[in-house]
Structures are given as C-alpha cells and as structure tokens.
Amino acid sequence: MRTASVSRRPRLAAAPELRSADRRLAGVAAMLGSGLSNQTGAAVGALAFPVLGPVGVVAVRQYVAAAVLLPLARPRLREFTWRQWWPVLLLAVVFGTMNLSLYTAIDRIGLGLAVTLEFLGPLTIALAAVRRRLDACCAVLAAAGVVVLMRPRPSADYAGMALGLLAAVCWASYILLNRTIGSRLPGAQGAAAASGVSAVLFLPVGLLVVLHHPPSAAAVGCAVAAGVLSSAVPYLADLLTLRRVPAQTFGLFMSVNPVLAAVVGWIVLGEGLGGWEWAGIGAVVTANAVSMTARRP
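Above: the chain's sequence. Below: its structure in token form.
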C-alpha cells in the first residue's frame, strides 16, 4: 500500500503544474491572437480608405466598439457622478482622436511605421514610472529609433509622422485616464461608456461620409471587420490573457506589435520597409522589451 501511494504522488503533484503550463500556453496564444487581430483589423480597414477615407473607417470602428462593449459591461449611466463622468468624457475624446490620428497616419506612412510611432505612448509611460540607468538607456535607444524613422529624406511624410506621434500621446493619455476610471468605476463600465460617447460624437461624421461618398458594401464590410478585429477580438482576448499570464509578461509581449504591424502591412497592403525602417522599429521594440524584462515586480 505504501508503494502504491508513493507512486501516485508524482502524478498528483504534476497535475497542477501541467494545468499551470496549459494556462500559460493559452495566455500566450491569446496574446498572439490579440496582436494579429488588432493589426489585421487595421490593415483590412485601410482597404476601405479609397471609398470611406480614414475618417469613415474610424467612425464605423467607433460604432462597432460601442456595440460590443456596451452590452458586455452594461454601464449604469444614470448612476454616474460628475467625478466619474469627466474622465469618461475625456476618454471618449481621446479614444476617437487616437484612432483617427492612427488611421490617418496609416494612410500616409503605412501600418508598420504608424504603429511603431504610436507605441511610443505606452513605452513613455513605462519608462517614466521608474528611475534606473537601464531605463535611461532604453529611452535613448527608443529615441534613436524615432530619429531613424523620421530622418530627413525626399519621400518623408512629416505630417503622417506627426499624426503617429499624436496617436502616441493619445495612447499614453488613454492609459492614464483608464487608471483613473478604473479607481472610480467597477469593471469595464467606464471604457464601455466612453466608447458609447465616442460613437455618438462620430454619428455626424458617419452621416457626412455617407452623404458625400456613398459607400459600397465591400467598403462597409472592411470597416466593420476592422472594428471587430481591432476592438472586439482584442478586448476579449486581453481579458482572457490577463487571467492567465502575469502583467509583466503581457506588457513584454505587447512590444512585438510594431513588428506584427509591419509584417501584416507587407502581406495585406503590400507595404515594403527598407533596412533603416526595420532598424528603427527594432530599436523601439528592443527598448520596450529590455525595460519590461528588467523591471522589478
């Protein structure tokens, strides 16, 4: 009997470890799926630019985000106080501005470069939270990557790059506002309410686009797909991921998004990048990866 009980112990001890490994594997798969879905959605949305323009695609994306988040979170809008409403209203404006500036930047400079510049927003927040020499080096490396991407050349579109940087500022503001809202509203009520307000703000935009540029069914389908792939799927995938992997791992994996964007832009939109562009993207990704890896819990 003693021998039998001893033989069972390794199996019983290994079971929780196996379940933990399965959970981490599911979390990694969800992170990869979220990143690919987000960037693929942006690329598919860009296919509708010739008909709807970036503004029309963003309007549809805001509608889709509201249609997904409001039923899921069910915010109790009538119970919100002004202390809860003002960051929600600011988040709605930031949310719309971030997507509009990003999609316009994609139209002008391509998906890979636009997403890389936008990624400077959360990277700046991460680097500003600590005071170490390593983080200073990461900041210098990221700045060097930006200089490479924005170096003077005949084909440089500085307006598009400026829009990418505006998207970065909006993403940083989005993170800070979400922290404030998270401390004042339970669950995803704040984000859902902000998406609803943003959708209402974009209603006149959508009407103008329809009146002046009647969309085709294919263009609307691409815009709706962009909303689903870039809003609904990443939101649900991130909820699944954060239950299975540490926040540090999640932040580290986020750094591959510029690379995913460049690859998806090449496959879906036929956007090619030169060696200098890849070097700049690599510098920004490496700066974030090193900072997240070396961060103390």
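Confidence is low (pLDDT under 50) at residues 1-9.
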